[in-house]
From TrEMBL:
CDD domains: PBP2_TAXI_TRAP (cd13520). The keyword Transmembrane helix applies. The keyword Nucleotide-binding does not apply. Pfam families: NMT1_3. This is TAXI family TRAP transporter solute-binding subunit. It comes from the Bacteria. The chain crosses the membrane at residues 7-28, 322-343. Keywords: Membrane, Transmembrane, Transmembrane helix. Signal peptide: none annotated. It comes from Vasconcelosia minhoensis LEGE 07310.
Length: 430
């Protein structure tokens, strides 16, 4: 009996210690502040601005997560940094070879190939780069890395032209000075520095042809267009829809980053859209969650936990009796299909309404005679954008309609900037 009591006592003490340890561990986890490093790009680049917006909004909603935005040379370096755990998260181009310890979090937005040339250089295609001086982005960047397989398709070798790697700011200045004949850069549509460069009539965008043939050797490339007027509406730049190719910007994480951290970051991307857009309008192009679930590379468990959180348990899903009558199934399916057709039509009509409002505001911009009028129009544009984001969240418009909306909205913003410059020059305002 004494031995039994001793074992009972020892078991009770062991269980108490175990409960205390588990409770203490859980308490520490609840109070723990996570600091993670997000590798982006150069401080003046789009990746850095995008990463800064994510860090700001995550900090506002998740006080236990602090994101340090880290400068880098570009996608290949970012992938290596995550693999070596010098960074926990990173922005990379979808063509970057994925390393074993790196997992996907989300697909963000398309990055388009921009070949911008001096009009006097008579460059109408990539093949015309032979014998020319080309400004490239810094070595190690995604733009630099992708340039070489691109020109190889057209039969060009490095010795066929002069290549000058430099920063984006230096490349833009070199083209305007005439020190180079063209520059190549992969960037999200509507980049402000590219828009400013294209306002100079001495430079132009060059189309990238043979897109389907390019994809035979580079399947990660996606055919796309730079829409007419994407960079300026009056006169439209480009003057017509311009065929180009694109890769996608991805958010990736090291597999060892805690699940709750990646889940919180993923949730911020999709559920804090308004704040993200206010911090950086380009975040409006973030792809839908369904796209990120099918990237062809392993998803981080934290991203999986967010994407599949609403999926029912297998036994719950199939708990209902399976013996429904065939006629009832047909009636229900028909009703759902009719409702879907009605909903899609309603979503499209609502999106078209917003696009018409944008076009009307663009007309007002052209006739505006004061900076105050332009400020009022800009405010109306951001109010429309906020309403569209709300409608997207509650399924009043579809993700496809939202993507089509972002183009005229950005054109309107760029048109305002162009009109402001004209008015300031007329009035001598600085």
């Amino acid at each position: 009996m004494q031995k039994v009591n001793r074992w009972v006592w020892l078991t009770g003490v062991t269980l108490s210690i175990g409960v205390a340890l588990v409770s203490g561990y859980q308490l520490l986890r609840e109070r723990q502040v996570y600091t993670v490093r997000l590798a982006t790009g150069g401080a003046s680049g789009e990746y850095y601005a995008f990463g800064t917006a994510i860090a700001q909004v995550v900090a506002a909603h998740e006080p236990k997560i602090k994101i340090e935005v880290v400068e880098s040379a570009g996608s290949p370096q970012n992938m290596q940094a995550v693999q070596a755990r010098r960074a926990d998260l990173a922005l990379v181009q979808s063509d970057t070879p994925v390393l074993p310890a790196v997992q996907a979090v989300a697909q963000l937005y398309p990055e388009m190939f921009h070949l911008i040339a001096d009009t006097a250089a008579e460059i109408d295609s990539i093949a015309d780069l032979q014998g020319k001086r080309i400004a490239l982005m810094p070595k190690g960047s995604g733009s630099y890395t992708l340039f070489w397989p691109l020109i190889a398709h057209y039969g060009l070798q490095p010795e066929d032209f002069q290549a000058f790697p430099m920063s984006p700011t230096e490349a833009h200045a070199a083209l305007l000075r005439g020190d180079v004949d063209a520059l190549f850069r992969i960037i999200g549509l509507g980049n402000e520095s590219v828009a400013a460069l294209l306002r100079d009539p001495a430079v132009e965008l060059v189309p990238i042809q043979q897109i389907e043939a390019l994809r035979l050797s580079q399947p990660y490339l996606q055919p796309t267009i730079i829409p007419q007027g994407a960079y300026d509406g009056s006169p439209p730049t480009p003057a017509a829809d311009l065929p180009v190719v694109a890769v996608n910007a991805l958010l990736v994480a090291h597999q060892a980053v805690p699940l709750e951290v990646v889940k919180a970051v993923t949730r911020t991307l999709y559920e804090s859209r308004n704040e993200l857009i206010r911090a950086n309008p380009h975040t409006a192009q973030i792809q839908s969650p369904s796209v990120s679930q099918n990237l062809g590379i392993p998803l981080h468990p934290g991203a999986q936990a967010y994407y599949y959180q609403d999926e029912p348990n297998f036994f719950v899903e199939y708990a209902e009796p399976m013996g429904l009558l065939l006629s009832a199934t047909i009636i229900v399916a028909s009703g759902i299909w009719q409702f879907r057709l009605w909903l899609v039509g309603r979503q499209k009509n609502r999106a078209d309404m917003y696009n018409l409002e944008i076009l009307a505001l663009i007309e007002q911009v052209h006739s505006a005679s004061s900076l105050e009028e332009l400020r009022s129009i800009r405010q109306q544009l951001f109010e429309i954008l906020q309403q569209v984001v709300v409608d997207l969240d509650i399924d009043r418009i579809s993700p496809e309609s939202f993507q089509s909306f972002t183009f005229p909205w950005q054109v309107a913003i760029d048109t305002i900037r162009h009109r402001e410059m004209i008015l300031m020059n007329l009035t001598g305002t600085r």
